TrEMBL record:
Lineage of the organism: Bacteria, Bacillati, Actinomycetota, Actinomycetes, Mycobacteriales
Basic and acidic residues: bias regions: 1-11
Natural source organism: Nocardia fusca
Cited SUPFAM superfamilies: Winged helix' DNA-binding domain
Protein name: Metalloregulator ArsR/SmtB family transcription factor
Disordered as annotated region, ranges: 1-26, 71-91, 147-169, 258-284
């Protein structure tokens, strides 16, 4: 999984700030490492946390209990499909909105004020133009794929077209890596006939709540790079635990791709470790 060591995880990383959980010395480094895992890999079990960080179960649970008591983390039972073996489902832990908020949202007030002023001077068009330019910087340097030819999805034996599908998945991983470098703690995973880009942290979430143009422009930038229709299933700005974007690997007909869709709770996938991006960034 390529996880950094405890001391590295305790340090600062672009866009995430420091972890504001009371703890001192080595305890603080360990707590920060656990918070980072909850952010990037959650929901995650205490056993998985211990294995990743080389910690005893009792020590992991002590930190998790402290995070839950402070309202920065919560526990829930594993879904049936996540359960391994028999017995009672294991608890899975993840950060709450309050926990993510402790990671910092640098200069939110200043950024919000600046965009409001921009809107007063140049109108909505100026805000939209700014959002588009910002979104393009997130994927700057990633070579776009050619636009996909819309064809009905049918069952076919493996052909040369499969290389195009794997190319789309690889390009989605490039996007996730770029997003992680920008502080979004992103990962990818295969889900059915597609791949999902999960952004487990958003450095501009508070600003995006007021200016959804930021999220819309980001999605448009993904479409441009991937050369295909993509669908946003969830956003942190709307109160979800992650920003989840579905990228189909089988191209749908144009009419179906353009038809508005509403993701059901079962469709909006929770961040998991099925096929994480090797960048190691992976939400409440």
């Amino acid at each position: 999984m390529g996880l950094p060591n405890v001391d590295e995880r305790a340090g600062h990383r672009a866009g995430t700030g420091s972890v504001g959980v009371p703890a001192t010395g080595g305890e603080g480094h360990t707590r920060a490492a656990i918070v980072r895992l909850l952010l990037e890999e959650g929901p995650i079990t205490a056993t998985a946390i211990g294995s990743a960080l080389g910690l005893a179960p009792a020590g992991v649970r002590r930190h998790l209990d402290a995070l839950i008591e402070s309202g920065q983390a919560r526990a829930g039972r594993s879904a049936p499909w996540q359960q391994k073996g028999r017995g009672r489902p294991a608890k899975q832990y993840q950060l709450t909105a309050a926990g993510r908020g402790m990671l910092g949202h640098a200069y939110d007030d200043l950024a919000g004020a600046a965009i409001r002023q921009l809107r007063e001077i140049g109108g909505e068009e100026a805000v939209t133009d700014f959002a588009r330019k910002r979104a393009r910087t997130l994927v700057d340097g990633i070579e776009p794929l050619p636009a996909h030819r819309a064809e009905p999805a049918v069952e076919e034996p493996e052909t040369a077209d499969d290389s195009g599908r794997s190319g789309t998945a690889a390009k989605a991983e490039e996007i996730a890596t770029a997003l992680s470098d920008a502080g979004f703690a992103a990962s990818t995973r295969r889900v059915g006939a597609g791949v999902q880009i999960c952004q487990h942290h958003c450095p501009v979430a508070h600003v995006a709540e007021e200016f959804p143009e930021l999220c819309e422009a980001e999605l448009a930038a993904f479409r441009e790079v991937l050369g295909t229709h993509v669908q946003r299933l969830a956003t942190i700005a709307n109160g979800d635990c992650a920003c989840t974007t579905h990228v189909p690997l089988t191209v749908l007909p144009t009419a179906a791709a353009d038809r508005p869709k509403h993701a059901s709770p079962a469709t909006v996938a929770q961040p998991a470790t099925d096929a994480p991006n090797d960048s190691g960034r992976s939400a409440e």
